[in-house]
Specification:
The chain is of the alpha+beta class and 517 residues long. The chain folds into three domains: 173 residues, FAD/NAD(P)-binding domain; 199 residues, D-Amino Acid Oxidase, Chain A, domain 2 (2-Layer Sandwich); 76 residues, Rieske Iron-sulfur Protein. Helix 2 runs parallel beside helix 8. The chain is globular.
């Protein structure tokens, strides 16, 4: 199995001819500096450029190299956390506003595709939510009532339009959509640059400073001076505590396999399993591709069998589920995983960053709705920076404290706190001799814990096992070949270099001892 950083997603494989952008090589001054070139960062840049502002977008890797290229690109008003649950936590008014924001986000993506002629396979489709088992029928009826109260034109239909298996009753959500996310981002970047903006790939940000003389510094020694800073890094790299106690990281897994054209209707499908399955169809020249996701778990956690992070088993479970329902499914062509930031109350955090100067903004907490939440972020942050009113400012305010989500807050933070005891355990293995080639393990050496990877040639690579964010002990993920932090979701490649935040640097280097005593 390929390591995570080398694994190719469907979108990466089919984003033909995407333009590349140079690393930042000098100091520049702009109106707004945006850190992160995913859906949130690039949409924000696009909307600000329409306002005539000069923006700079900085990213560690290529455009969309974070979670945007690891999505399944559902564009939906059928919210993952269910309307009846949002209504319980937030009330009817906020729930209606949440629905409207996602609906407007889908419409905005369609408009942008027209405005700058983006060929990204944008397609309007229906969506269907069906029960995973007979006992879940009540969920459908509760959701029907709550979704209608929120203003959605939903209907109960006898079954979802899948000929190969009978789903039973299903909720039909009209006017959903799907697209190719990397092609879409490529179009946004092109438009930003044509309007005088800057896009810089392979540019790592090491420091963010707000206030009257706001600036963003990179590890290349260059500085972007600006009036405003937007942090759109999926999990914010400029926040230590405030946001990370209100959201938790979850891994989700995806497979894509061919089907004959027109075997399955182009639509979005979701079931009520926990964790749930999500399905869509992508049309390719030779065949359709069925994209199936699910098997979520808390990042860095053990699964039900006690084995830590076993993606191969999760991919196998996805295939078993899919082949039982879609018997014409061909050999799996793509496998990938992504990380979802689940907020305690089901809504994203978009707006001014807590405990930061007023000209520092963030977007995080996708809650499984990354493509629409990212688009909402672009529209909302552009309005905040321009001083315009926006109906969604309050519901997405990062400073909010939803009292009715206090139980979820306690659960997730107790979960993170529980990993403090990892420092007291012996480690995954007693000796580095037990670590086979192309694998890793946490080893105790005296009072320290080391993250040790043995490469294909037998050479050992040792780093501190302490996550640079808040010091939790990372876990080796053998299927993905990564080091994952179970507390707040930072991830590192097999050599300890940072892949995703909130950590903004790699695992610390250590001097290797002569032996493993």
């Amino acid at each position: 199995m390929e390591s995570r950083e080398r694994r190719t997603t469907l979108w990466m494989a089919t984003a033909q001819g995407a333009r590349t952008y140079a690393q930042l090589g000098k100091d520049i001054t702009v109106d707004v500096c945006i850190v992160g070139a995913g859906i949130a960062g690039m949409t924000t840049a696009y909307e600000l450029s329409k306002d005539g502002l000069i923006v700079a977008v900085l990213d560690d890797g290529p455009i969309g190299s974070g979670q945007t290229r690891r999505t399944t690109a559902h564009l939906s008003t059928a919210l993952d956390d269910r309307y009846y649950e949002l209504e319980r936590i937030h009330g009817k008014k906020t729930t209606r506003l949440a629905m409207q924001s996602h609906s407007q986000a889908i419409d905005r993506i369609a408009e942008i595709c027209e405005e700058v002629s983006i060929d990204c396979n944008f397609e309007r489709v229906d969506g269907y939510l069906f029960a995973a088992k007979a006992d879940d029928a009540e969920i459908l009826h509760k959701e029907l009532e709550a979704a209608r109260t929120a203003g959605l034109d939903v209907a109960m239909v006898p079954r979802a339009p899948i000929d190969s298996f009978d789903t039973g009753e299903a909720l039909r959500f009209p006017a959903q959509a799907q697209f190719h996310p990397l092609r879409y981002l490529a179009g946004l970047a092109r438009a930003v640059v044509e309007r005088g903006g800057h896009v810089h790939e392979s540019t790592h940000v090491v420091d963010i400073e707000g206030g009257p003389e706001a600036k963003v510094r990179t590890d290349g020694g260059f500085t972007v001076r600006c009036e405003h800073v937007v942090v759109a890094t999926n999990s914010p790299i400029n926040e230590r505590i405030a946001i990370h106690t209100k959201q938790a990281p979850y891994m989700s897994y995806v497979i894509a396999a061919p089907l004959p054209h027109e075997t399955v209707e182009h639509a979005l499908f979701w079931d009520t399993e926990d964790p749930y399955h999500y399905v869509r169809v992508q049309r390719e020249e030779e065949h359709d591709l069925l994209i199936v996701g699910g098997e979520d778990h808390r990042t860095g956690d053990k699964n039900g069998t006690g084995d830590k992070n076993d993606p191969d088993a999760r991919y196998a479970a996805l295939e078993k589920w899919a082949r039982a329902r879609f018997p014409l499914l061909g050999e799996t062509l793509y496998r990938w995983s992504g990380q979802v930031m689940e907020t305690i109350d089901g809504l994203a955090f978009i707006g001014r960053a807590p405990h930061q100067p007023d000209n520092v903004y963030l977007a995080t907490g996708d809650s499984g709705m990354g493509m629409t939440h990212g688009t909402i972020a672009g529209m909302l942050l552009a309005d905040l920076i321009a001083g315009r009113e926006n109906a969604f400012t309050e519901i997405y305010d990062p400073k909010r404290k939803p009292l009715r989500a206090a139980g979820e807050y306690m659960k997730e933070n107790l979960h993170s706190a529980g990993h403090v005891v990892d420092w007291l355990s012996r480690g995954d293995v007693k000796s580095v001799d037990q670590i086979v080639a192309d694998s890793g393990g946490v080893v105790r050496r005296g009072l320290k814990k080391l993250a040790v990877y043995r490469d294909e040639h037998g050479q050992l690579h040792e780093r501190s096992a302490a996550c640079p964010h808040l010091g939790c002990v990372v876990a080796w993920n053998d299927g993905e070949k990564t080091w994952d932090c179970p507390c707040h979701g930072s991830r590192f490649d097999r050599f300890g270099e940072v892949l995703s935040g909130p950590a903004n640097s790699g695992l610390s280097a250590v001097k290797r001892a002569d032996d493993d005593k």
